[in-house]
Every structure is written in C-alpha cells, then in structure tokens.
Amino acid sequence: MFLAEGIPAALMGFVVLAFMTDRPSSAKWLLPKEREWLEDVLQRERDEVEAEHTRLSLGQALVDPRVLALSLVYFGMGTATYGVVYFLPQIIKGWGLSNLATGFVASVPDIVGTIGMLVWGYFSDRSTDRRSGVAATMLLCTVGLIGLGLFGASPWSLIAMAMVSVGLNASRPLFWALPSLFLSRTAAAGAIALINALGNLGGIAGPTMLGWVRTSTGSFSDGLYFLAFCTFVAGMVVLVAVRPPARVAAYVAE
Hints:
CATH class: Mainly Alpha
Helix content: over 70%
Mean pLDDT: 86
Low-confidence stretches: 247-254
CATH superfamily: MFS general substrate transporter like domains
Shape: globular
Distance between the termini: 44 Å
Number of domains: 1
Largest sheet: none
Oligomer: single chain
C-alpha cells in the first residue's frame, strides 16, 4: 500500500520540477498575455501589502506577533488533523465493525470533506475576509469533535466525523491565504516556512495526547475534547492574529 501511494507521488515530483515554474513569466504553458496579467496582479498585490503594512525583513517577519499567532493556529489545526487521522479507524472499529466495513465507513467523512472543501473555497473566494472563514472551519471542527466524543457508537457520530472532515479540509487553503495579507517577498517565504515548521509539531501532540488518554481511560472521549479545545483556541486566535485588510482584492472579477 505504501509503495502504491508513494511511487506516484515520487514521479509527480519530477513533473512539478518540469512544469511548476518559480514565477508566471517563466511558465511557457501560459499565453504571453496571461503571463503579463499574472505578473501585473502579483506586483500590485505586493505593492498594496507593503503600502499598508510596510515591508518587513526576514528577521522581522520571524518574530512578528502575527506570524507567531498563525503558528499557534496551525499547531491547533495540525493537532486535530493528525489526532483524528491516526485514530479514526480505531474509533470506528470500536463500533463493532469488521476491518473491511471500517475502511468503507472511514472513507465517508473524507468524501464529504472533499466536497465541503470545494464548496467552502468557492464561497470564500467571493469574500474579502479569510479570517472569518478560517475561524468558522475551526468552530465547525470543535462542534464535530465534541459530538464525536459524546455520541460514541451512535450513528450521529458519522455526522460529527463529516463535520470535522469538512472543517479540516476547508481550513488549510483558507489559512495559507492569511500570511500574504501582511507579508511579501522573502519575509513571506521565511514566515510561511516557520509557521509550517512550528505548526506541524501538532502532528506529535495530537496523536500522543489522544493515545495517552485512550490508554489511561479506555475511551477516546476526553482526548477528542482536548482536540476540540485546540481547534476552538485556533479559531479564536485567528480572529485577532491578522486584522482585516483595508484593501478589497477585486482580481477574481477580472
């Protein structure tokens, strides 16, 4: 299974190197007018960000409170994501299902989550406030995780799982639009790397806490409540981490 999943991903790496260029001006698969338009849009966005927030150096960006706050938000997202991903099959298996049935049932929330991500992203692109979208996804996760802990083997748990899946899948593309609201150029690259590095530590915290709680209490419920607390804090922090931008990006209409 690992080979079946890993080989296509490794091969796609070479495709990315060949086709994903560093900037639109180098993308030969775009028409000249498309390359010019994209370069113009990106330059205008950089100029607007720097005019509103001033241009930060790499060092300033790495200690900026907004960057550190977004790292905390991403940590909460990662804690919930990896905690659920690692233990969801065991939670479902606890309903008394066979291994085959567990696999099929576990796929349902992901299917719903994928659809939810596309729908949420569609409506988010027509909004100028990404923060509210991220906060809403985190609160949806919070409700879903609490429901998953409360309902146990009830059929309602499947709905709770779907809520969590929609929230987690939809949150990431919205979240990664936030750093560019106040960062540009090298500062943006360095800050995004820092946010990703610190946030991914949640991949250790989530499964570890959930596994410890399961071993100590014989139930996943308290661990799921902990994950719900993490997503709730993430949702609250994101609302104060980045102020709403004064500019309105109207590029979608163009």
